[in-house]
Specification:
The chain has four helices and 19 strands. The protein is mainly β. The chain folds into two domains: 137 residues, Rossmann fold (3-Layer(aba) Sandwich), CATH 3.40.50; 170 residues, Porin (Beta Barrel). Strands 8-9-10-11-12-13-14-15-16-17-18-19 form a twelve-stranded antiparallel sheet. Strands 3-2-4-5-6 form a five-stranded mixed sheet, with helices on one face. A hairpin with a 7-residue loop joins β5 and β6.
């Protein structure tokens, strides 16, 4: 209930920075307005590193059932607050503006901070206000319990991008439609995607044109069996000029096991799932194997793990895929990313991906033209794909980070 209990931390209007609390706070979040928090919560000392803070606040974001986000706010006490930890949640929806979201986050953070600040020199300046809209909130809650949409969410979006220069013209059109229903017992996702791009490049003697079209209709239904097991299926239709697919239909039942209860997904998850099914394909051009259509049976196993902890984030995914009738046609993918705080001020980020590719059965016959290679109009034969990303940052100097200055 949004306004049922609102905790307001009200400071004397003329309170200067030198008169602010000595309590130090560190806030780490994904895609949030940290400057806004500093400005609106200037009664605390915001520090640049979590090791310098008395209160560490970690905000984790996950997609919720209404296509908005659920923010989980974890509070960790240090120094005089050691052992005092807490956690709060807040849900947003696609109708909320960025300003509404950041204000809601600020109010929820301040609500969680009360348990710490009542033991500081700010305790005499905290005012608690209980909203007088309790009856209205209860009525809204009763109305939500009789949701006429039955948890169904519909979302439509589109983008168009056009760029022109003397020797270059580029256009890209995209449309997406998502229909979802998510509850504790079932997850239904129905997605339609359309994308069309056309690029024209001119030189003194030649004109090169690149076209790519992709249309897809995908469905996923998953049933919750218990805290660790799920089952369901994925199915869909697709057309993709880049992959030489004129029409494709697939259906794959699946089962998944989570080593940790699903409710712990905000902080840690480790899952393994297995899929098996069939794919029917019609190709735009004859393939290197002399086929214009084929039916294939496939299976794959995926292992995925993610940890989001105060010391950093780790994500890994391993996928093994093959054709049942010909196991030599296979693919192995490994994707890994982590960001770790080594010590005060020093963070390291490493990401990488490597794929061993042996399943390109849809490649068109014939030689690859220079246009196809440079303009990426068609998928090109390859045995592997690799990518490496590395980053490091080191910050030192003043521990405090309370000022905001946007001049120039």
């Amino acid at each position: 209930m949004k306004n049922l209990i609102l905790i307001l931390l009200s400071l004397v209007p003329f309170l200067s920075l030198s008169q602010s609390s000595s309590t130090k706070i560190f806030i780490k979040c994904e895609r949030c307005d940290k400057d806004f928090f500093k400005q609106e919560m200037n009664y605390l000392n915001h520090v640049r590193d979590q090791g310098l803070a008395d209160i560490q606040v970690f905000i984790y974001r996950n997609r919720n059932a209404n296509n908005g986000n659920r923010y989980t706010i974890n509070f960790i006490g240090k120094n005089e607050f050691l052992g005092k930890d807490n956690s709060l949640n807040i849900d947003t929806n696609p109708k909320m503006t960025r300003d509404e979201i950041r204000n809601s986050l600020k109010e929820r953070i301040e609500l969680g901070l009360v348990d710490y600040l009542i033991k500081t020199d700010l305790s005499n300046q905290i005012k608690i206000s209980i909203g007088n809209e309790i009856n209205n909130e209860l009525n809204e809650l009763n109305e939500s319990n009789s949701d006429k949409w039955k948890n169904w969410i519909f979302q439509f979006s589109g983008d168009a991008d056009f760029e022109n220069e003397t020797s270059k013209k580029e256009s890209n059109i995209e449309f997406q439609a998502d229909i979802d229903k998510v509850t504790d017992d079932i997850k239904i996702q129905i997605d339609f995607d359309f994308e069309r791009s056309k690029n024209r490049y001119e030189s003194d003697d030649d004109v090169f044109i690149s076209k790519r079209d992709r249309k897809s209709f995908n469905t996923k239904i998953v049933w919750s069996l218990n805290d660790n097991w799920s089952s369901g299926f994925v199915a869909g239709l697709e057309s993709n000029s880049y992959q030489n697919i004129d029409f494709e239909y697939y259906f794959m039942p699946a089962v998944e096991y989570s080593f940790y209860p699903y409710k712990e997904v905000v902080r840690r998850e480790m899952t393994v799932n297995y899929r098996i099914g069939f794919v029917l394909r019609d190709y735009t051009q004859e393939t290197i194997y002399g086929k214009t259509k084929e039916n294939v049976y496939t299976h794959e196993i995926n292992f995925e793990t993610r940890f989001r902890q105060p010391w950093g984030d780790i994500y890994s995914r391993l996928t093994a895929f093959s054709f049942l009738q010909d196991p030599s046609k296979n693919r192995l993918e490994f994707n890994n990313w982590f960001s770790v705080r080594i010590f005060e001020g020093l963070s390291v980020r490493v990401g990488g991906e490597i794929n061993f590719i042996r399943d390109q059965v849809g490649l068109p016959a014939g030689n690859t033209s220079i246009e196809d290679l440079l303009l990426q109009q068609k998928e090109i034969a390859t045995n592997f794909y690799s990518e490496l990303r590395f980053g490091i940052s080191y910050t030192f100097g003043s521990a405090f980070n309370n000022f905001i200055n946007s001049r120039l």
